[in-house]
Structures are given as C-alpha cells and as structure tokens.
Specification:
Blueprint (H helix, E strand, L loop, with lengths): L1 H16 L3 E3 L11 E6 L2 H4 L3 H17 L15 E5 L6 H20 L1
Antiparallel strand pairs: 1-2, 2-3
Helix pairs in contact: 1-4, 3-4
Length: 113
C-alpha cells in the first residue's frame, strides 16, 4: 500500500502543477491510488467535441507507445476522454516521475502539430 500511495502522490503532485490535466475524480477522498484517471482540461483540447478529444487522446497514447514510454494508458472506453495511469505496487515511483515528463512532451508535441 505504501508504494501505491507514493506512486499516486508523485502523479498527483505533477497533476497539481500541470495546467493541461486534472484528476478525473474531483473529490480527493474518492480517488483511486492505483488506477488514476485523468482528463485533459487545456481549453483548446477540452473545447473540442468528444470525438475530437478521443482522437487527440488516441494520438497521444500512440505517440507514447511509439517512444516506448507508456503502454495502455488510454482512458476507459465508457469514461470521458482521457488517460489512465497505473500506480499500483508493480510500478516504481521513479517510473511514474519519468512518465510525467513524457506526458508533457507528448501533449506539447501534439498540440503544436
């Protein structure tokens, strides 16, 4: 449990200082510390219709997979468009921290395209 808590804390710290993404679950007490769901709140992306938002997320996850930086982090099919990051005990906190840099890179790369 301590590892999952540390992983979640590292990811949430990045979320808190990042202006383009938020935790999908608004109420902190209701958030999962293992399967963390994120939504893109950048006004340009969030202002698109749902299909265009899903397309952006699909491109973002594909870019991360191509770079071997992250796999299977697309949001749940029935959830709003977004990302899902596994923070469970099988993940090292350093890898979560490294992922955040990749997320920022992929987002900036796609937004500039």
């Amino acid at each position: 449990r301590a590892r999952a808590d540390a992983n979640f804390a590292a990811l949430q710290a990045w979320i808190d200082r990042t202006d383009w993404v938020e935790n999908l679950v608004a109420e902190p007490a209701a958030r999962s510390n293992t399967s963390v769901c994120l939504k893109i709140v950048d006004p340009e992306i969030a202002g698109r219709d749902e299909a265009a938002q899903r397309d952006f997320v699909k491109k973002l996850t594909k870019l991360l997979e191509t770079e071997a930086a992250a796999y299977d982090i697309g949001g749940y099919r029935d959830a709003p468009p977004g990302l899902r990051v596994w923070c469970g005990t099988t993940v090292e906190t350093a890898d979560i921290v490294a992922l955040t840099g990749w997320l920022d890179w992929a987002f900036a790369t796609l937004k500039a395209a």
